[in-house]
Amino acid sequence: MNVLGTASSIVIVLAALCVVPALPALVGAFDPVDGERIRTPVPTGWALGVLTGVVVAAFAVALDDHVSWLPAYAYLGVTGVLLAVIDVRVHRLPDAITLPSYPILAALFGLAAVVDGDLGRWWRGLLAAAVVSVVSAGLWALPGAGLGFGDVKLSGLLGGALGWLGASAVLTGFVVGMTLAGMWALLLLVTRRASLSARIAYGPFLLAGAFVAIVGWPARP
User: What is the spatial distance between Cα 178 and Cα 127, in angstroms, rounded to a whole number?
Assistant: First the structure.
């Protein structure tokens, strides 16, 4: 990356971190639904800031040759941290955050496509979002699947962001995410901290899988 690209990446990362002071209030603004309870306190601003900074900086490093992509992934990083923390805290992925993120990411990726002269990536992301949404909705409809409809909406959003990178990124993200979720569920069962009918928060695992796929993307052919 040249000096201008490095400077641009730093500016984008710092701009993304400007929202960190508002994150604790946003996390605390959402109450549990469907009889769920509050499971953790609202993290401190410092904790959220460090986590957000690590995620966004990791994206900046991984995508160092594609500065035009970074605004979209920086937004995804900030939003992903927010959604993951809310889901851990109250087992909820609020529509107020997830749904507006669809047009926002579509616009940011659209801008990147125009800058790069590569509209094919934008259409591929759109197709991936649609396919992943349909597959996730099918899983959600299965008896005992454990996925909430919020997970379905998050999956479509992540499918679009990973689809921009390619089919292998989509596959990697969701395989890693579901594997992590399965390992966590097994651990809860073995330690008798949950029963087979217990619900787990899938959102953080789906987001972790997406993080792995994005950070590891340059290493794939």
Answer: 21
pTM above 0.70, yes or no: yes
| The 3-state secondary structure of 157-194, one letter per residue | HHHHHHHCCCHHHHHHHHHHHHHHHHHHHHHHHHCCCC
Cα–Cα–Cα angle for 73, 19, 3, rounded to 5 degrees: 55
Closest CA to 63 of 52, 73, 54, 48: 73
Q: Which residues contact 101 (CB under 8 A, 6 or more apart)?
A: 75, 76, 79, 157
DSSP code, position 217: G
Token pair listed for 178: 């579901």
Conformation bin of residue 166: beta by default, left when phi > 0, alpha when psi is -120 to 50: left
Give the N- to C-terminal CA distance of the chain in Å, as an integer: 19
DSSP label of 218:
G
- Nearest in space to 87 (alpha carbons), one of 3, 207, 198, 180: 207
Distance CA 59, CA 64 (A): 8
pLDDT tens across 125-180, in order? 999 999 999 999 999 988 877 788 999 999 999 999 999 999 999 999 999 999 99
Helix (H/G/I), strand (E/B), else coil: 109: helix
Residue 221 Cα to chain centre, angstroms: 23
Give the whole-angstrom CA distance, residue 148 versus residue 161: 20
Q: Which of 79, 70, 72, 75 is nearest to 48 (CA)?
A: 79
